[in-house]
Design a protein that fits this description.
The chain has 196 residues and is mainly alpha-helical. Helices cover 59% and strands 3% of the residues. The radius of gyration is 17 Å and the shape is globular.
Length: 196
């Protein structure tokens, strides 16, 4: 889920890290030891834990050069991230919907949420390069991740034919997604299973 974005960014930065994935049966015993009782978290070498996925991304972005130092440029990055995260959870929750609710939730994604998101993002999607030039930012990992984790994922958990069609319906975004995927090809070629 949300841990996929920092994993991809760490891989792009060529940072060695340990990826601890928690099995459902093990979660209750760990929940009380996590910030806010949630995951993902980033645990530093000294044992300090950083919670909340956007917070983790900003922290890693500052450490590894994916987050602008200029406050106005940082606000522009955060604006795009917030736009994406407003709908990300709804995209992902379809995987956990009750069978009787699934079709309605899928229809909401493709009839309302995805088109609205594309309309909001359209002014920011470049015809070349990435969201803020030639260098990736945390916004690219979130928004480019929409392409690699949903639109172009061979193991997406629902409506693969509808996700595939979004590439035809939004060719400028799909071209940006392909550039992002190419930039992260090494990581994407090695990841196991579906990202969600």
């Amino acid at each position: 889920g949300r841990a996929e974005y920092p994993r991809m960014m760490l891989a792009h930065a060529k940072v060695q890290y340990k990826d601890n994935r928690v099995a459902r049966p093990d979660w209750p015993a760990l929940k009380g030891t996590m910030p806010n009782g949630t995951m993902p978290i980033l645990e530093l070498k000294d044992g300090k834990k950083i919670g909340q996925s956007q917070n983790v991304m900003r922290y890693l972005g500052k450490v590894y050069g994916y987050y602008p130092k200029n406050p106005l440029e940082a606000a522009k990055v955060d604006f795009l991230v917030e736009n994406y995260n407003d709908v990300y959870t709804k995209f992902n929750l379809v995987n956990f919907a009750k069978p009787e609710d699934k079709e309605a939730k899928i229809a909401e994604v493709f009839d309302k949420l995805f088109p609205d998101l594309m309309a909001n993002l359209a002014p920011s999607i470049p015809e070349n390069g990435f969201l803020f030039g030639e260098k990736l930012t945390i916004a690219d990992f979130w928004i480019g991740g929409l392409y690699t984790n949903f639109m172009n994922s061979p193991s997406i958990g629902y409506a693969p034919e509808k996700w595939a069609k979004t590439k035809e319906d939004y060719p400028v975004f799909a071209a940006y997604g392909e550039r992002f995927a190419k930039e992260n090809a090494e990581y994407l070629s090695k990841r196991e299973g579906r990202p969600f």
